[in-house]
């Protein structure tokens, strides 16, 4: 609403601060604005240099595990047992093109949460076990070691041996190479608004391990429960 | 007089607001499934699902159609039918709750009623298998929940309460082949 | 409270009578329009508006003439034995496409009274083999008249009256409901 005509207009009080702060304007006018960009750049470079410059940041040192050692968090107990290079592994749900092979990790997993966990891409084991060289590449095939059930659910407190498979260029790895595997911890979130229930997300590296890659050629032993038992 | 009336009114409104906030159900409560409790052997009927659990067995190993696996396993034999429509009528929710943990029916057996299609008014029979840790079978309280949607919110759930510890444990149990019940 | 204050208060209501009436009308109208809009959008994708053919009669729908629909209890043959308490019913719907070929899904069978139960095609489940010239839907048909024949597995307690319902995807939310002569 408009102020009623005849009320005193607050002209006087405004005029006073105008005069009082005139010196600020005067000082600001003398600042050489051309320098501002230069000074800013200099400060940025100095701060960057103080933190180590543009050099790659050294990874926070993670606990080193060896093959067969268990990694435990609130969601899962994971034991990476073997790393295997094989020509093809349709049982794990992966198909290879010529010039490709399958890199498979054989992992014992136990669900330590109180709800069943899916192993489909983006969930539980898929986000927990990653290759250090290519941590964004989730396994393309996940299946049980014993009966080759694809993308099995992990029931609370039930141990399962799972095969995680990645398709890799045939010449990337060789027998005896060291494969570095990162094990992530995830955080439990409670859904809000349109998301209902609880879910694990935000994988953060928690441990790292090195395994020697075995090459089993066209071998069938990966899909068999007890490799080499009859030999 | 006006002052105390206003104070009283204000206090009453604050108390009423507090009471309303207190009795407002939270999301989980507001979306809770409609439970239909039923005994073993009795028919339970929900929105579009009618189930009779005909038996519950505990075993060290489970087998069907050449597949077998060490457990322990809890095998639920049941008859199930759709009630109103067979569109999207699959037995997609099957969980077992024991001691604060929830187990989901196993997708491992090659033949199981879990996620199978149901017919309207003509029951099918078969088994559902739960792969459990040893301690779950020793517990005194378990709740079996069966429903049509994997997401059970706001739909009927047929629920059977039973005592796993009283079940006779057998070495190997064969799942029933899924088929028409009669 | 003085008399003056009271008259003042009544005065406020009277002064704002028009806006108040406006609020009283517009507020419910807003919710009404939004709800109608949302439901309308939802229903427009669902089979909600039946185009009904009378029992034993036919109806024009999507430029074609559908019906009269007939159902028949059949012996499914040696391949399949109907479970106890059920029978196999086939429905036949003659279709005259007219000038253009028509599209439709496999028809469903519905009880038109009681719970309005609905059955989908069970031809495959019961291993029933229709004659070579009997079609399950409007797929790959031209402008020549043809007959759709589908088998349903129906419990004996479903005694009708029945209707055969046909959905033509482009016609939604309209669909053909062909009542069957009892």
Report on the architecture of this protein.
The complex is a heterotrimer of chains A (231), B (182) and C (182). Chain A has 231 residues and is of the alpha+beta class. Chain A has two domains: 13-50, no CATH class; 64-220, Sandwich (Immunoglobulin-like). Chain A is 18% helix and 34% strand. Chain A has helices at residues 11-20, 22-30, 34-50, 124-128; strands at residues 64-66, 70-72, 76-86, 100-111, 129-131, 141-144, 159-169, 178-190, 198-215. In chain A, a hairpin with a 7-residue loop joins β8 and β9 (198-215). Chain A is elongated and about 85 Å long. Chain B has helices spanning 2-23, 27-30, 134-137, and strands at residues 34-37, 43-45, 49-64, 67-82, 93-98, 101-104, 124-131, 142-147, 156-162, 169-174, 179-180. The model of chain B has no long low-confidence stretch (mean pLDDT 94). Chain B is of the alpha+beta class and 182 residues long. Chain B contains three helices and eleven strands; from the N terminus they run ααβββββββαββββ. Chain C has 182 residues and is α+β, with helices and mostly antiparallel strands. Chain C folds into two domains: 3-44; 49-179, Immunoglobulin-like (Sandwich). In chain C, 23% of the residues lie in helices and 30% in strands. Chain C is built from two helices and ten strands. Chain C has a five-stranded mixed sheet, with no helix packed on it. In chain C, strands 2, 3, 4, 5 and 8 form a five-stranded antiparallel sheet that branches. The termini of chain C are far apart. Chains in contact: A-B, B-C.
Please sum up the structure shown:
The complex is a heterotrimer of chains A (231), B (182) and C (182). Chain A is built from four helices and nine strands; from the N terminus they run αααββββαβββββ.
What features would you highlight for this structure?
heterotrimer; A: alpha+beta; Immunoglobulin-like; 2 domains; elongated; C: alpha+beta; 5-stranded mixed beta sheet; 5-stranded antiparallel beta sheet; 2 helices; 23% helix
Total number of beta strands of chain A: 9
Number of domains of chain A: 2
The CATH class name of chain B reads: Mainly Beta
As a whole number of angstroms, the C-alpha radius of gyration of chain A is: 30 Å
User: What is the residue-averaged pLDDT of chain A?
Assistant: 83
Backbone structural class of chain A? alpha+beta
Residue windows where pLDDT falls under 50 for at least 5 positions of chain B: none
* Quantity of strands of chain B, as a count: 11
User: Could you tell me the strand content of chain B as a percent range?
Assistant: 35-45%
The CATH topology of chain B is given as Immunoglobulin-like
Series of secondary-structure elements of chain B, N-terminal to C-terminal: HHEEEEEEEHEEEE
Task: List the domain count of chain B as a whole number.
Answer: 1
Q: CATH topology of the largest domain in chain A, which one?
A: Immunoglobulin-like
> What proportion strand of chain A?
25-35%
What is the overall silhouette of chain B?
elongated
How confident is the prediction overall: mean pLDDT of chain B?
94
Globally, the shape of chain A reads: elongated
